[in-house]
Design goal:
single chain, mainly alpha, 11 helices, 74% helix
């Protein structure tokens, strides 16, 4: 049992070290494929192959360069060395020439380097082609999602306009007082509109948070971002107009704790959204348009504050004091 436990512990340590170095190697390979530019590999091949050719050429007289049939190559030129280097780096290996002495080590290193570099070149070309198609699909998906958000805020604008009209009609003082059913219906509609505004503001902000790390603002069409910003700004302006048009009595009736909390949360989400755009987008026109959303309602707390009802000053009762004295004529 002890021997088995010892073997298991050794196996766990070996597995742990293997996983550790495998992870490092994988990250290094990803770095070579994703971060190193294609031009650098081209320069490596362009200058590395002639450089090694020169070394083969200089080492051949010393029996450490290029050989043929087990002996150093005779009557050779630099072009022969260049030909051998190209055949070696591409792993063709025709067999008419072979390395000798120290050049065997150089040839092995050149073969391994050539396999890695050529493999990375092929991977980068394939990745670039795939990235092009993926970017097109991603850009199309971005536009589709943003158009849905834009349409949602435009529909919300219509609902806000309708709410402004209905609130004015329901709470307008007329000779015939409105029935409780009508005012309660307007209150339900007001809550539904505020809930929709909160849901859409939270949704667009969370969407931008999730996508900002994926080069979103470099792929998203500028006109699409400008349209969604304009739609949000108009909806926010209508929200402020609706609340400002309410009398003190209407605010006391409609602005309860839940609706006030949703309005404040919605405007906070818009500030977060603007910060994301300003931190990740390079287009100044887009940044300016999103900043205007925040500036639409600069003081949300004072906007939704419920006015304190005025307390009428108590008037003293003017009563004649009782007296036995006769009234003067």
């Amino acid at each position: 049992m002890l021997r088995l436990s010892f073997v298991n512990s050794i196996a766990c340590k070996i597995r742990r070290y293997f996983n550790k170095y495998a992870t490092v190697l994988r990250r290094f390979l990803f770095f070579l494929i994703d971060d190193v530019r294609l031009a650098y590999y081209g320069l490596l091949i362009l200058f590395g192959v002639p450089f090694l050719s020169l070394i083969y050429f200089l080492l051949t007289p010393c029996s450490h360069g290029i050989g043929s049939n087990g002996s150093p190559l005779q009557n050779y030129t630099f072009w022969d060395a260049l030909y051998f280097s190209v055949v070696t780096v591409s792993s063709l290996g025709y067999g008419d020439m072979h390395p000798m002495g120290f050049s065997k080590f150089l040839a092995c290193a050149e073969v391994i380097t050539g396999l890695i570099v050529l493999g990375i070149l092929l991977a980068k070309v394939t990745s670039a082609r795939l990235s092009h198609h993926v970017s097109r699909l991603y850009r199309s998906e971005i536009q589709k999602n943003m158009e849905e958000f834009t349409e949602g805020f435009r529909n919300l604008q219509s609902k806000l306009k309708e709410a402004i009209k209905d609130i004015g009609q329901a709470f307008q003082p007329t000779p015939d007082s409105q029935s409780p059913k009508e005012t309660s219906t307007v209150a339900e509609m007001f809550t539904a509109v505020i809930t929709s505004f909160h849901r859409r503001s939270t949704g667009i902000t969370q969407y931008l948070i999730n996508e900002a790390e994926h080069d979103y603002f470099n792929l998203a069409p500028a006109d699409t971002l400008l349209r969604i910003a304009e739609a949000i700004e108009r909806a926010t302006a209508l929200l402020g107009q609706m609340i400002l048009s309410m009398s003190k009595e209407v605010r006391n009736s409609l602005l309860n704790r839940d609706t006030r909390s949703m309005i404040l949360d919605s405007l906070d989400e818009q500030r977060r959204m603007t910060e994301i755009v300003n931190n990740n987008c390079k287009d100044e026109a887009i940044k300016h348009k999103f900043t205007q959303i925040v500036e639409t309602i600069k003081d949300p707390k004072s906007l939704i504050a419920i006015p304190v009802p005025e307390i009428e000053a108590e008037q003293p009762d003017h009563k004649l004091e009782e007296t036995d004295q006769p009234l003067m004529e």
